[in-house]
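Known limitations

Structure tokens in this collection are predictions and should be treated as such. Users comparing against experimental data should check residue numbering before alignment. To illustrate the layout, the record for Tryptophan--tRNA ligase, cytoplasmic is reproduced below. The input appears on top and the generated tokens appear beneath it.
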Amino acid sequence: MANSPNCDLKSLSPLQLFERVTEQGEKVRALKAGKAPKDEIDAAVRMLLSLKLSYKTTTGQDYQAGLPPKDLVLINNGTTKEEDEDLVDPWNVQTSNAKGVDYDKLIVRFGSSKIDTDLINRIERATGQKPHHFLRRGIFFSHRDMDQVLDAYENKKPFYLYTGRGPSSQAMHVGHLIPFVFTKWLQEVFDVPLVIQLTDDEKYLWKDMTIEKAYEYARENAKDIIACGFDVNKTFIFSDLDYLGTSAGFYKNIVKVQKHVTFNQVKGIFGFTDSDCIGKISFPAIQAAPSFSSSFPQIFNGKENIQCLIPCAIDQDPYFRMTRDVAPRIGQPKPALLHSVFFPALQGAQTKMSASDPNSSIFLTDTPKQIKTKINKHAFSGGRDTIEEHRKYGGNCDVDVSFMYLTFFLEDDDRLEQLKQAYTSGELLTGELKKVLIETMQPLIAAHQERRKQVTDEIVKQFMTPRKLAFEF
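Generated tokens:
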């Protein structure tokens, strides 16, 4: 059906059409690369043009590689308009819903796949380990090609992990820990190498800070990342400002990506304008490059075909949609992804936290007293206006920030369910729920601070020195 120009394309959704065009484009490239007969290539090209025309007729938009269609709703006169939708990009997260972003809609809009029970069970079978509570509770909720990674793993083929941090401030907050906590678990259960990119160059380009300050923040943030407990023999942490100048393989991949992505595409994907500096416009290629094992010849022995798995918050997905579109054209495997939900600000789930607002989150430098004050004073409540009403009608866990934070940091499933039932029934008051959160966060932050004190400049240097890791490739 996909190969017949006469197939009924009218029944397909914009996203299905987008995927059909992408698949057909890859088929045309493969036929040309394989020097297929001319009539076969011509037929495939005609099919591609037909699909692109159907896509434009349905959406009113030209097909752009790596840029799925926005949500569209048909109105009576047959024209289209955008739905009121959450704003999610690498720099902004906004929603009008107190429950937070509608992640099911986001999956459709971004064209990813939901992490379902079958996939979680498969991860458990492959690793022989109980799935992390971030998986069990839907904190990591969406993926791209995780099934392929498991196929490879089950066939004894290697893969590696890549995640990162944009060092915008000296102190990180608890939300920044989420990808690292989960990445550490993935590294341990699959026993694979990990690279962590510190995008100090990005922060210099986007923020009002000196290049020296961006680099200093990167090294300070590295200490917090190391304090999560990563193994120095299996983990390479690098600053872009440092590593880019020393790795020919890394730079070659950046240039290959830059050649295959147009200015029009990055404007469409990232919203860049003609007045943005050229550093911003070229930066996505730098975030793409660690997705390819040839960027780290010292780790992978020069091998270029090792697949990458990227755990990250879903606002980073635009970078990797672009990367996945480019990868086949530069002879590289597409990176797979695992997406997390956003960690809510204390004031509510309508936005993600800001490192520049000390009251929007709990920071890894906060004292027990500061933690208590912030939660009691700023944590948005799903409780009722009076104790009498709360006892009668119960609280709303869907919007209560203290309960949201507990889903991230309270590991005991039974205890979390008890708290949910007690709060929903009105048996547990808001102040009592906040007390549970305070008693959960204080020792967690204190333990992190203790581990961070042990991270010397020498240890940071070990993690950040390009070297062979404890794996044979």
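For this record: Residues 14-59 form a domain with the Helix Hairpins fold (CATH 1.10.287.10). DSSP finds 21 helices and 13 strands in the chain. Please report discrepancies through the issue tracker.
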